[in-house]
Amino acid sequence: MKTLYRNGFIYTSSGFKRADFGVIDGIIRFSCLDDSFYDSVIDINNKYVIPGLADVHVHLREPGFSYKETIRSGTMAAAKGGYTLVASMPNLKPVPSNLENLNVQLDIIKKDALIDVIPYGTITDNQSGRGELSKMAEMQDYVIGFTDDGKGVQSKELMKEAMLEAKKLNKPIVAHCEDESLINGGYIHEGEYALQHGHAGISSKSEWIDVQRDIELAKQTGVQYHICHVSTKESVALIREAKKKGLRVTAETAPHYLTLCDEDLREDGYFKMNPPIRSKEDRAALIEGIKDGTIEVIATDHAPHSKEEKSKGLKGSSFGIVGLETAFSIMYTKLVLKGVITLEELVKLMSVNPRKIFNLKEIYIEDGYSADFTVIDLEKEYVIDSEKFVSMGKATPFNGEKVKSEIMRTVYQGNTVFSID
Length: 421
Ligand code: DOR
Hints:
The chain has helices spanning 71-80, 99-112, 136-139, 156-169, 192-197, 205-221, 233-244, 255-259, 280-291, 313-316, 327-336, 343-357; strands at residues 2-12, 15-24, 27-29, 40-43, 48-51, 53-58, 83-88, 116-119, 173-175, 188-189, 201-202, 225-227, 249-253, 297-298, 373-383, 402-412, 415-419. By secondary structure, it is α/β, with parallel strands linked by helices.
């Protein structure tokens, strides 16, 4: 199959430029750009073409929880959001803590995934952050790294053991930082809003105390250490210091932490996730973090739940919101258009950096690269309506938000996996 794309404004390793390009057997080619050579010609109409987005933090819910999301529906949502690669979190049933269990997920991925899906294996054998380590060695060839996401590893000794094993296997430890002894029934940020509305708060310390512990352990063990969904200013400061010392420490945050604060909370499960949306000062520190390179990745933490599970207000709803179908537009509208970061920087945060950090195939719109790309109309305005999501999860604090920029087409290995028409 040969397709010629005319009139793109394409992202290359040296910035955006206007160009036509061919896709031949799934590979980008610039050598032969004659219409007659191709099976079809698509006019991109001067829209932007960027490398397929990569999200290293997604919950696809299968196997085990297909009433919330499936690998098919989750990857459809990802394709619609401009992603060609996602890494799937392991809070599943069976838990991918050994190769036999992991194979259940790999079989569904093979059958149903529309784009690259690379699973995580767990750190502990039941993804509880306690007890015995998982069978990391037998899973190493099939996983992007090891995490107990959804749960923090509760003891220093166990985390050190995990890091030593991961270091041996040359795989990253990816940490959900949460000290459960400091949670005390909290479910939103411990701050002004919680105080005024009588809610139980989650302290910032429950996150940063583990970030601090793990950075020290990463230094001792030499493991590659990546921190999930950073939400507090104290964590940002700790990561900045670790990087200054040259440690192998990286971090991600998510669109909701970069754009919302606890003043924006409503009495609605659509505003509930873990870690919680924090204070204005935390948000400012996170923005500073993505600007100065302390935080190199924007991930979504796409965490779909059923309508029922998200309908019980801030206290009773499940933790987690969806993000795959809104992340790019929200970040473009609220960061790029406001002059906080450039479009090139956003592409790095959402595509280039995660691929580099996790040692995944690099993607540029350049000769010889896999044709995994996204076409975006940066002028298009629309209002987010979560009932129109293809994800089975509908809960997002951005519902009703007016945004600019829309994904027009997503191409994965040369095939269109999403198109607006
Ligand atoms: O809000 C969250 N939801 N945070 C997590 O860490 C887990 C996730 C989920 O699996 O629903």
